[in-house]
Amino acid sequence: MDDRSHGDGHRPGGGPGDAALLLLADSRLPAGGHAHSGGAEEAVRLGTITDAGDLARFLRGRLATAGLVTAALAAAACELARTGHHPGREEDLATLWRQLDAEADARTASPAQREAGRTQGRLLLRTARRMWPSPALDTLGVAVPEGAHHPVVLGAAAAAAGCVPYQAALAAAYTAVTGPATAAVRLLGLDPVTVHRLLADLAPALNDAAHAACASLIDSVVTDDADPLAVDPCGDDRRRPPGGIGPDGDDATSSPEPGSAPGAGPCRGAGWPALPGHAAPALDLLAEGHLKNAMKLFVS
Amino acid sequence: MIARALLRTSAAPAGGTRLETMRSDPPLTLRQTGPGRVHLVATGAGPLGGDRLALGVDVAPGTSLEIRSVGATLVLPGHVPGESSMTVHARVGAGATLRFLPEPTVLAAGCSHRMTVRLSLAPDATVVWREEIVFGRHGERPGRCHTRFDATVFDTTGAGRPLLRQDLVVGDGHTDGSPAVYGDARCVGSTLVAGPEWRTQPDGKDERRAETGDGWAALPLAGPGVLSSALAADAVELRRRLERAEDAALRLAVAW
Amino acid sequence: MGAIHDDLHEAAAPGGRALRLGIGGPVGSGKTALVAALCRTLGPSLRLGVVTNDIYTTEDADFLRRAGVIDPERIMAVQTGCCPHTAIRDDIAANLDAVETLEERFGPLDLVIVESGGDNLTATFSRGLADRQIFVLDVSGGDKVPRKGGPGVTSADLLVINKTDLAPLVGADLTVMSRDAAAVREGRPVLFTSIREDKSAHSVAEWAAEMVAAWWHQHGPAGHAHEHPHGHPDGHPHHEDDPEPAVLPAGRE
Fold it and tell me: Which residues contact B68 (CB under 8 A, 6 or more apart)?
């Protein structure tokens, strides 16, 4: 992969998106993030998070599931915003944004989480459009007027700010754990340094999640774009050993070209179906329970 | 061991469903147990490490098929290192119904298993698809398992919209015991109920509300379906909770 | 702050948008009662919306709904994640979203009131959220509170000192409060009220109506003037039944 599209190049002094990444991931970014606990408030209420040990397990699990999924979606959105925008192609691009947003929908079974994700996305888009005005953010706002999912907006905002997909993924993974961590400090009165120690311990896992998210962008194997109703359902199995299907499969031929030319419209999005969809059944239950609880301090 | 089994229905001349193709491939053995009903019968242990099993299911337009299994599937490590895998590709045609209700998959210690489901639905197809995973036999730490579920609904032009994409990972240090993922549960189960009766209201901008209970939830999806989801300490409790969630999902169907 | 009213917002929608009035102050000072009073008094002549920021999601919103002073649909509750001051000052995104949602659903509106969650003396509204703001104190906190100042007391466009009926009971000297407030507020107005005795909070309502009228003068009324449903061709709401505004400082005898 080239470092332009994935940010892995080791340039002395870092890249142009580095400072923007700090702004984007900062909890002080005025985009409503401070009021989201990512399920932590309900877990505290139910007593499944009572101390720093519980919180550490909660954060690790959240990062491996929702964190990875949002990182991948953010990376995909960043890539689309960086490479997809060409004057006169707004219509195509709007379709692609809606498709990516639908991929986020399909990975969010809980309606409470979809609602929270769209609310956060809407608020972030409002803020990002004023901070980093860009045609991609405008198109996204028009394409998904009800508010795109937060990681989709985050990726588009990252591109507008000059970040690469890896940085977008890192910001998404980071906010997936810092929100609940801060909420737990407020709700349980945990020592803030203890909690930041937990976050420091998670740093390598955050990097790993961002790398995995970017890798998933070029590891496309599931090819849903053709209409399988028109082909034999076992067709795939005849072309290769059964079981070699899925994100860990070995079929490299259907992967989009790494670093493919900007504006390679038809290829764009081809890998999205295979992006990670790591589910967390407990987070789903927490989100729905939280929505029903009138006595809450956080949006999610 | 590599096995590929295939099930295909066709519309009977007098209406109803005919089993057009029922190709067993041990250890995947298929037995017809009723009209439009087939049981998977395990002939031999496993899957074992290294086994690659695949099942293709094609439910023809207007027909209906139910697939069950005789007993739980026990996934075991093999004599040779390597993953075992089970892949199911199913497509459900226009106006057809598929009910996939197997017994749980039990992950024995040391196993390494991969389950992949790809489900393609015609716009007015109906599906009930249940999956239950038990984390090890009694008192046993489970092996590793990664499941991936993709369900796509195709419109009349052939354009697909993803309905549900989910990975579940069991036996991983990052997620096991996490209050965010399975908590202290030893079993996880989900049932996708999808079809035209679960369409969102055309003017419904707001999300439909979920129904929840102790350890279960019926989650209306963004597309035409509801995911029933449950966590439990044991397989019996899991089934009880999942059935409650399935009942709730059926209640969420809309009358048109 | 009160002296600087240049608009730092994004351009108002064509035809103007509602004046956004923030109401802040410590817990229990009577913010929600004041919002209810303003709805009661201004509701007949102005098109209103209310955003609440209670500690717990819907407490204040429920109070207002029960009070029956405004269509419940026009009340939106915002969660603040334990930090009510953050939601009105440092990160106003959720409140702006709520205000705009109300304007979208029920607009054009004349006045949107944003009630903060109870907070401390340092909490003020961002000017990105509130065009004008009221800070509400009550006498039971002691007559030294205005002297202590803090951004809310010193810089709010209007300081309301509520529960004057309790002054004799808590030994608060209203003259002292009035003098101290005047000293730190550089001439910005202070009103003394007892919303328990005056359910219409007429003096505060009068001030708010003047602010709306001035807003119209500057930006044009929301929507078009001739379409204004309440027929104030001069752009001034007025309240025929209202008594004269209270003189300030209006220490109760």
Answer: B33, B37, B38, B39, B40, B101, B102, B103
Q: Locate the chain B residue with the closest alpha carbon to A51.
A: B179
- B92: Cα separation from own chain's centroid: 14
Helices (H), C137-220: 145-148, 151-155, 167-170, 174-185, 202-219
- Integer Cα distance of A158 and A17 in angstroms: 8
Partner A contacted by C11 (CB < 8 A) = no
Give residue-wise pLDDT tens across range A68-118: 999 999 999 999 999 887 777 777 899 999 999 999 999 999 999 999 999
Inter-chain CB proximity C57 and A295 less than 8 Å = yes
**Topology of the domain comprising C19-222:** Rossmann fold (3.40.50)
What is the bridge-based pairing of β-strands B160-170 and B2-11?
A: unpaired
Question: Residue with structure tokens 């923007």?
Answer: A20
* Cβ-based contacts of B6 with chain A (< 8 Å): 234
CA A236 to chain centre: 29
What is the layout of strands, in order, in the sheet containing B112-121?
B17-23, B2-11, B52-59, B84-92, B112-121, B144-154, B160-170
The residue type at C211: M
Q: A181-186: long-range contacts (C-beta < 8 A, 24 or more apart)? A: A181/A40, A181/A55, A181/A59, A182/A27, A182/A34, A183/A36, A183/A37, A183/A38, A183/A40, A183/A41, A183/A44, A183/A298, A183/C81, A183/C82, A184/A37, A184/A40, A184/A44, A184/A49, A184/A55, A184/A58, A186/A297, A186/C81, A186/C82, A186/C83
Of A29, A33, A298, the CB nearest to C79: A298
Tell me if A65 and B154 make a contact (CB, 8 A cut-off). Answer: no
Show the domains of chain A with their CATH numbers.
Answer: 3-7+14-251+270-292 (1.10.4190.10)
- Phi then psi for B20, rounded to 5 degrees? -70, -45
Residues C156/C121, Cβ–Cβ less than 8 Å: no
ω into C221 cis (within 30 of 0) = no
Count of beta carbons in the 10 Å neighbourhood of residue B200? 17
Instruction: Report residues of chain C scoring pLDDT below 70.
Output: 1-15, 56-58, 223-253
Length of chain B: 256
Whole-number percent of chain B with pLDDT over 90: 83
Question: What is the rounded CA–CA span in Å between residue C92 and residue C125?
Answer: 9
Residue C231 marked as a ligand binder: no
B residues 63-102 lying closer than 8 A (beta carbon) to A: 83, 85-87, 89-91, 93
Asked if the Cβ–Cβ distance from B150 to A222 is below 8 Å, we say yes
Q: Measure CA B152 to chain center.
A: 14
Rounded Cα–Cα distance for residues C213 and C18 (Å): 11
d(C-alpha B201, C-alpha C57), whole Å: 28
Q: What is the pLDDT of residues B61-100, one digit of tens each?
A: 999 999 999 999 999 998 878 899 999 999 999 999 999 9
Boundaries of every domain in chain B: 2-184
Query: For residue B58, what are its two tokens?
Result: 């094609």
Nearest Cβ partner for B165 among A64, A107, A230: A107
User: Distances in Å between the alpha carbon of A52 and those of A41, A176, A181, A284, B61?
Assistant: 14, 17, 10, 22, 55
C140: tokens are 């039971």
Could you tell me which of C25, C19, C10 has the C-alpha nearest to residue C156?
Answer: C25
> Which 8-state DSSP code applies to residue B198?
G
Q: Does C101 touch chain A (CB under 8 A)?
A: no
ipTM computed for the complex = 0.95
Q: Which residues of B touch A248 (CB under 8 A)?
A: 114, 146
CA distance A210 to A68: 7
Contacts of B135 in chain A (CB under 8 A): none
CA–CA gap between residue C79 and residue C100 (Å, rounded): 16
Question: C77 to chain A: nearest residue by CA?
Answer: A299
DSSP structure class, residue A225 = S
